[in-house]
C-alpha cells in the first residue's frame, strides 16, 4: 500500500500526523471494519477480497505493511510480519500494544509469523510454479553461542538451485518461520543453507524443530514468540574513538549499548533506508547529545551511566510511553548520547528540555539518525 509521503525537515522531523496519532486513527478504523473482515475469513472468501480490506484497515498507520489473517479456533488472528527486516520490529510491537480492548475481544494481534507446530507436516507453500511440502524437508543444526547453523535438504528445492536460488531460499526461510516462528528464526538462526544431498546422520523434521529450539535455548514457547522481549535484547559494543571528533556525530564514542543495531549500523555507514521508512510512517529516531566535562572522579563512568539512565526514565515518564521508547546510549571522550525512538517527536523534545534543564547539564543537542542532518540545540545555559 502506498500513499503520498508527508514532507518534513529531515533534521527536525515534526510530523503533522506522528505515528502515535496514525496508530490511534488506524485502530479506530480497524474497529469499524473488523467485523466484515472476520466475516470474509469465516466465509473463506478469496484472498484478493481479504487483502484489499485488510490493506484499507491498516493504511492509516503504515505506508507499507505485511500482514496475514486467520482463525485459530478461538479467536481471529492479525499477524504482522517483519519479512526478515528487524527495523520493522519496534513499530509493529508498538502498534500491537496499542490495540483497544474492543478489538482484542475478537482478535489476537501477533508480531512475526507464528509456528504451525505439529500441523506443519502437511503444509504446502507455493511461489510461481514452484511448491514445497513441509513433510519433505529434513533439517540438521549446529549450535554456537546460542546461534544455529541450519542445513536443510528438500527434494523440491534442489532443482531450483542455482538459477532460481532466491526463490528456493525464500521458500526455505518461510518454512523456518512456520517451524520456529519468524522472530526466533531471525534471532537464532545465524546461517541457513540448502544442501544438495541429505547428511547420513538423523535429521529433524520441521515439526520437531520447535521443541529442539526450546531445549537448546532454555526458553519457553511463549518467550520465543514474545515480540516485546526481542525489543529489549541489549548488546554492548566498543569502538576506537576519534579524539578530533567534536561535532556530536558519535565519532568520539568508545563504549555503548543498544537494542537496535540495524539503525546504528546504517547511521555509521551513512545510509538512510530505515530512517526513510520511519519518516514515511511519521516516526522519528535520534539521540540526545550532552557534554561530559562536568563528570569527574574515579566513578566517572558510573556517574555518566546513572545520569543517562535517569534522564531516559524521566523523559519517558514526562513524555509518556506512547510517545518515547529508549533504545540505548553511548559514552564518548567528550559527549554522552541517549538513543530513542519518538512516536511523537514534539512531545519527546518538550519533555527532554524540561528534564535536561533541571539536570545541571549546560546544553543538550538533538540529532536524528541521519549523518547528513544538522544537530538541533534544544537549550543552552546563558553565561554571564
Cα radius of gyration in angstroms: 23 Å
The CATH architecture term of the largest domain is 2-Layer Sandwich
Q: Estimate percent helicity.
A: 25-40%
User: How many helices in DSSP terms?
Assistant: 13
H/E series, N to C?
HHEEHHEEEEEHHEHHHEEHHEHEEHEE
User: How many separate domains?
Assistant: 3
Biggest sheet overview? 7 strands, antiparallel
Q: Can you tell me the CATH class of the largest domain?
A: Alpha Beta
What is the structural class?
Answer: alpha+beta
Cα(first) to Cα(last) distance is: 55 Å
What are the main properties of this structure?
single chain, 384 residues, alpha+beta, Alpha-Beta Plaits, seven-stranded antiparallel beta sheet, three-stranded mixed beta sheet
Question: How would you describe what is shown here?
Answer:
The protein is an alpha+beta fold and 384 residues long. The protein has three domains: 19-112, no CATH class; 117-225, no CATH class; 234-380, Alpha-Beta Plaits (2-Layer Sandwich), CATH 3.30.70. 38% of the residues lie in helices and 24% in strands. The protein contains 13 helices and 15 strands. It has a seven-stranded antiparallel beta sheet. The chain starts with 18 loop residues before the first helix and ends with a strand. The mean pLDDT is 95.
